[in-house]
Amino acid sequence: MSLDLYVFLFLLWAIRLVRHSWFLLFGAVCAVLPNKTEGTAEIFPSRVQICKKG
């Protein structure tokens, strides 16, 4: 395997890790501020839908 493939796989892993931690962070915010989700729905519509389902 070439070095480029290793770099590509590392970038994919890093992106997945960042996205996962972002969802965990947003889930924590939803748990702490359940009554504030309507106000953030305009800013993060897809994130709030995930939050409300969870």
| End-to-end distance | 40 Å
Shape: rod-shaped
Structural class: mainly alpha
Largest sheet: none
Q: How many whole angstroms does the radius of gyration measure?
A: 16 Å
Number of domains: 1
Approximately what portion of the residues adopt beta-strand conformation?
under 5%
Mean pLDDT: 69
Helix content: over 70%
Outline the low-pLDDT stretches.
Answer: none
SS summary, helix count: 3
| DSSP E strands, number | 0
Series of secondary-structure elements, N-terminal to C-terminal = HHH
Structure commentary:
By secondary structure, the chain is mainly alpha-helical. It has one domain. It has three helices and no strands. Helix 1 (3-32) packs across helix 3 (45-53). The longest helix is centred in the first third of the chain and has 30 residues, at 3-32. The N and C termini lie far apart (40 Å). The mean pLDDT is 69.
Keywords:
3 helices; mainly alpha; about 55 residues; about 80% helix; rod-shaped
Ordered list of secondary-structure elements with their pairings:
Blueprint: H1 3-32, H2 37-40, H3 45-53
Helix pairs in contact: 1-3
Short structural summary:
The protein is mostly helical and 54 residues long. 80% of the residues lie in helices and 0% in strands.
